[in-house]
Amino acid sequence: MRAAENGRDPRLKAISDAIRVVPHFPKPGIMFHDITTLLLDHKAFKDTVDLFVERYRDMGISIVAGIEARGFIFGPSIALGIGAKFIPLRKPGKLPGRVISEPYELEYGTDQLEMHVGAVQPGERTIIIDDLVATGGTLSAAIRLLERFQAEVVECACVVGSPVVQGECELKEKPLFVLVEPHY
Amino acid sequence: MSADKDEDPRMNGIKSKIRVVPDFPKPGIEARGFIFGPPIALAIGAKFVPLRKPGKLPGEIISEDYVLEYGKDCLQMHIGAVQPEERALVVDDLIATGGTLCAAMNLLERVGAEVVECACVIELPDLKGRERLKGKPLYVLVESH
């Protein structure tokens, strides 16, 4: 599901325009969508957060989970805007105290995502935030982490994402909401 | 300056929610500074500029090396993110020795920005990080000994 850019919400064009593409980063062939330029445009950054807050504020969401590290840039503001807790989902070794870990696949090899034990209570309604969704591998690991403590993942939300990817994404049939499509 | 001493009634609620985990490695501006910096930027109408470990920022960057207790680390910033004479606030969750904050200040000053203040939720005053900030003021909400 996408907040369509076709003139429906007038804020989306400026958000899309503020995101720059850096070719061949971090390696050849990848068109990297850099949201740091969006963060330099106060109005567009605020509109980005507002669009998510408007969507989620009446959905009884008590947890916003953000994926390290660019999910941390958007997640806390959304959590504050809707009155929810913010939970960081992190690479191994970053969270002190007791954690649970969930592996996920990279192009070559695997990585892990971790969450604090006790951050989430059973039945809590949750959204997961990241800046961009590509294959959905990280988001899927995030969903599994939250579901291991019986949280209800209501939706995954990203600033940038392709509807085509959504179809191919391994998101366990959870809805995906994106603001803008990638620039190609 | 510490908000502690001003006895803002919100302090108790904040302090009671921070737990101490013994013997855990120290933080940096990436990524816990990302949790507090953006909401502050949005609330005051400012830009947010992430300062990151090497290899994370695409495009042209400048780098600042800094010394850790054992070895070195490096902080990077995008070229063009900050204009000369812009007034900047550096935000992190915690100040310990001040090494990371000092590197952050250097990055900003190298492009001609004016660092107005450093701001952290927590200070570990026994590590005297406040003295490594080249005379710039430090504002913290709580102290932890």
Query: Biggest interface and which pair forms it?
Result: A-B, 29 and 27 residues
Helix content of chain B: 10-25%
Number of strands of chain A: 9
- Gyration radius of chain B (Cα, Å) is 15 Å
Describe the protein's topology:
The complex is a heterodimer of chains A (184) and B (145).
Chain A: H1 11-18, E1 20-23, E2 31-34, H2 36-39, H3 42-56, E3 63-67, H4 71-82, E4 85-89, E5 99-105, E6 110-116, E7 125-132, H5 137-148, E8 152-160, H6 163-168, E9 176-180
Parallel strand pairs in A: 3-4, 3-7, 7-8, 8-9
Antiparallel strand pairs in A: 1-2, 5-6
Helix pairs in contact in A: 1-3, 3-4
Chain B: H1 3-6, H2 11-15, H3 33-44, E1 61-67, E2 72-78, E3 87-95, H4 99-110, E4 114-123, E5 138-143
Parallel strand pairs in B: 3-4, 4-5
Antiparallel strand pairs in B: 1-2
What does the model show?
- The complex is a heterodimer of chains A (184) and B (145).
- Chain A is an alpha/beta fold.
- Helices cover 31% and strands 29% of the residues of chain A.
- Chain A has six helices and nine strands.
- In chain A, β3 (63-67), α4 (71-82) and β4 form a beta-alpha-beta unit.
- The mean pLDDT of chain A is 91.
- By secondary structure, chain B is an alpha/beta fold.
- Chain B is 23% helix and 27% strand.
- The chains are: A alpha/beta (184), B alpha/beta (145).
- The interface between A and B is medium-sized, with 29 and 27 residues.
Please name the defining characteristics of this protein.
heterodimer; A: two-stranded antiparallel ribbon; 31% helix; B: 145 residues; alpha/beta
Brief rundown of the structure:
The complex is a heterodimer of chains A (184) and B (145). Chain A has 184 residues and is α/β, with parallel strands linked by helices. Helices cover 31% and strands 29% of the residues of chain A.
